[in-house]
Specification:
alpha/beta, Rossmann fold, 8-stranded mixed beta sheet, 31% helix, Alpha/beta hydrolase, hydrolase, hydrolase activity, AB_hydrolase_1
């Protein structure tokens, strides 16, 4: 439940819908350790606003989550706890409506961790911060896309690859893309990042046709489906 500050908090993006047919929950990044308030709209939050707005214009109801704290704060895993709270809120407000989780960095880790909620159908994790300790069992029955820039300096793309391998071995529908020329903050080739998120989320929700590039990667065996290269034509 939210504390006295009103956090965690779901913030609608675009037009609010009373009876949406699909939902997207967007989780921004943060820090490994910080008990600072999640109230200020820092760059980590603002970075995800264009993704949320682009999705909201295509039909689903979209929400950005404001965490209680900036940090993951292991073993508390505060961002994951807040994501789980948010999914419970959405399930109560909109029973039976499917949710796609979209998260960046720490938010990507929280999205992957929270995927076991009954209303989640898919996860899109952008440059997720993983350390080898994250489970994959919660991904059963979900569709998962992971993407990392090949100029990543803040998180380890090798960890996301190994995570994807473990999920694939379990039978999860997972693909993973390398984005050439892009770094952690997605400032370079932002159009490619945005198109990837949009096509994945809208495809799994049935709002748009399934993207053939993503579909092909999902069906490829390891390692090809987990080391797919996202070229500039995918915009």
């Amino acid at each position: 439940m939210p504390d006295k500050s009103g956090l965690p908090r779901l913030e609608p993006v675009g037009r609010e819908q009373d009876r949406p047919s699909a939902l997207v929950l967007v989780l921004h990044g943060g820090r490994a350790h910080s008990r600072e308030s999640g109230e200020p709209k820092r760059l980590t939050y603002r970075r995800m606003v264009p993704f949320a707005r682009a999705l909201s214009r295509r039909g689903p109801a979209v929400y950005l989550l404001r965490y209680r704290f900036r940090g993951w704060n292991a073993p508390a895993r505060d961002a994951l706890r807040d994501a789980q709270w948010a999914l419970g809120e959405l399930a109560e407000r909109f029973p039976g409506v499917p949710v796609v989780l979209v998260g960046h960095s720490m938010g990507g880790r929280a999205a992957l961790g929270a995927a076991g909620a009954s209303n989640v159908v898919a996860v899109c994790a952008l440059a997720p911060w993983l350390d080898g300790s994250d489970p994959v069992v919660q991904l059963d029955g979900r569709t998962v896309l992971i993407a990392h820039g090949d100029r990543e300096r803040w998180t380890d793309p090798g960890e996301s690859y190994r995570f994807a391998v473990r999920a694939k071995e379990r039978g999860v529908a997972v693909c993973r893309f390398d984005v050439p020329g892009a770094g952690h903050f997605m400032l370079t080739r932002i159009g490619v990042w945005n198109a990837l998120v949009r096509r994945f989320a809208l495809g799994v929700l049935g709002i748009e046709p399934v993207d053939p590039v993503i579909a092909n990667a999902l069906h490829q065996p390891t390692p090809s489906g987990l080391r797919a290269v996202l070229h500039g034509a995918h915009t």
